[in-house]
Structure formats: C-alpha cells, structure tokens
Amino acid sequence: MIKKIFYIITILSTLIIVNNASAKFDIKASTAILQDYSSGEILFEKDADREIYPASMTKIMTSIIAFELIEKGDLSLDDKFIISENAWRLSQSGYSSMFIMVNDEVSVENLLKGIIIASGNDACVALAEGIAGSEEQFAILMTTKAQEIGMMNTNFSNASGINHPDNYSTVRDILIMSRYLIENYPKYYEYYKDKEFTWDRTGGDPITQGNRNPLLYKKMGVDGIKTGYLAVEKYSLASSVIKKKRRLIGVGSGFKTKKDRSRESAKLLNWGLNNFDLIEITKKNATLTELDVWLGTKNKVQTYINEDVYKTIPKARKKYIKIIVEYNGPIEAPIKKDDVLGKMKIFYKDELLKKYDVLAFENIKKVNIFSRIVKSINYLIWGDV
C-alpha cells in the first residue's frame, strides 16, 4: 500500500503564539487563569498553581454535589431539609447568609438559590447536613469529587469556604471545577446568572438579595459564576462570558479591592475575546473527508473524528498551521464502522501540535471474486483503485 497524505485545511493559528501574546498582558491579581472553553486552550495564566484559599468559590463544588444527586434521582429540588441550630448560627455570625431559621423546612431548590445567588453560608451547611448528615461528611464528598474531575491540588474541609487551613485550592483547579459545572449541568448552571433571590423568611419580611457577581450587571455577556472573599486571600472571582457562541472562563484571586475584582476580571475576559478567535476544525461525528478504498463495494470511505476539534487563534500574530490526514492507502476492504484508518495531524510549521484518530464513518464490504479480478486488472493497467 502507498502512504497517502491529504491536506485538509490551512488556517492561521498556533498554541505557541499564545504565550507571546500573554507575555504583554497582566491583571492586578495574585494569581489568575483564562481558558477558551471550546478549544480548552489556556490563553493566560499567572502563578496559576499557587495555593489559595478559595473562599466562597468553594460553593461551586457544594452545588455540583447536589446537582449530581439530582441527576441520579437521589435528590429532588422539591425535597425539604429541616434547618439545624448549627446552620442557623452562621446567619447570626456576620457571614453572608440566606437568613434561614432553626426548624425551618427549606426546599433544596431554595437552598441552592441561597448558596448560588445570595452566597449564604447558612444554606451551605443546611444542604450539607441534609445530604450527608454532617458538614464534615459532606466535605469528604466534595474532596472526592474534586479528585475525580482532576482537581489534584484541592482539599475541601467545609461546604461554604469559611477560612480553614485545610480548605485550599488553586485557580487552575477552580477553573477545572467551573468548566465541569458548565459542561455537565447546563440546566442548573442557569441559576448562576439570576441577579436576585427573594427568601420569604420565618418571622420577618421577605429578604431580597442581589447576586454578588459584579460582572452580571455589566453588558458583556457574563452568565456566572462565583465570587469569594477572605481577609487572608482578599477578593476572588470565577467568571464566564459567552459571546457569539464562544465561551471563556476566567478565575482570579488576590484582588486587593472589590473594585479591582470587578474591573480586572472584566479586563481579563475582554482581553480574551478581543485578542483571539475560535476556529472550528471539525465537529464530533461530522464527515471529515473521504479516503480511497481497495476491493470494496465503494471506492471511497467517509471518515470522522470522535470529538470536537477547535483551535484558538491570536488575531494579531498569525502563523500558518497545516491540518492533514495521513493514512496507508488505498485501504483494503472490508472496513467496519469506527475502524481506525489513519491520523489527523495538526502542525505548526514542522512541529506536530496534536494528532487525532481518523475513524471510518461506515461499513464497506469486500467485492465478490469476479469484481476483485476486474479491479486488480484495472489497477495493474491503469493504476485505478
């Protein structure tokens, strides 16, 4: 068989240029990171693996645990938990609160809104106790989930993010967690863009609280996700913006003031939107190209890549990359759907950036003996497959 190479597309891009572009950009945070959601490429990072106290960004994992149980059918938004004195005390201690009362019966949905929108520490404890029996046991679930999704530098010791030496993470891990939430629970992620929540509390007038994420109030397409503050860590924010079907996720910690947190986080997201383009190479299960077939009932086989492939392209400094399909062909029949037929390779100049398996999109049977003889003669005479 002859090794054949097909040039599929030539576009402008590269991962290498990203570092050059980000070298001239900075924000007023101790540590930060920015990712293009579709390509997965990191557009900017600043000391992204430094240990931080995640503060109320911890609550993202608290909600993930609940969403997972709801999806499995082990928990319902309509389920109600009785509020303990332990949970109630947090509403009396100066922390951000939903203002639930002892012995209130509160639905899971209201507790989630109290956590996500009002950042209620009391709601976190109530949800944790209702699910796991105690906040300590719930924190074990949180850490186990963190390890499962790749947050390798994170440990949770409580459900709210109240300062504790054993409640730590990194902005890279917070990014992983934020991405996991958006990707796996899009229906429930909608809560994160709600700008206010009203709780009809016992023994008093209803309390309406606004979402603490300052970027939701800017006309820039932000739809989540969570603020944080601790005296030892200062201000933090995990945020996500979606514009023209393109999503970026940013995380920053160590902003000195609330104003810095809002302004610099917006700056980070806008920088990513304004300095990079997202290019779709191929979609999962979409036809990629056709490859030559030998002795088959068809002369060509359709192929595909079993994942979405995107590249993030700097707008200012563009270098050519080549995307090719490489295979040994013509490919002899029979061919079964999902057989690996070759590789799609993405190069920057002569450097291989990444490669993907090229799969058969269809079954192709071998022709009968008479047809094989005819095809063989044609090939010997004309070189025709």
> Which geometry do the CA atoms define?
elongated
Q: Termini separation (Å)?
A: 11 Å
- Major beta sheet summary: 7 strands, mixed
Number of H- or I-type helical stretches: 10
Radius of gyration: 26 Å
Derived structural class: alpha+beta
CATH first level of the largest domain: which class?
Alpha Beta
CATH topology of the largest domain: Beta-lactamase
Q: Average pLDDT across residues?
A: 90
The CATH superfamily of the largest domain appears as DD-peptidase/beta-lactamase superfamily
| Uncertain stretches of 5 or more adjacent residues | 9-20
The CATH architecture of the largest domain comes to 3-Layer(aba) Sandwich
**What number of domains?**
2
Spell the H/E element sequence: EHEEHEHEHHHHHEEEEEHEEEEEEEEH
Q: Which strand order spans the largest sheet, edge to edge or round the barrel? A: 1-15-17-18-13-12-16
Which bin fits the share of residues in helices? 25-40%
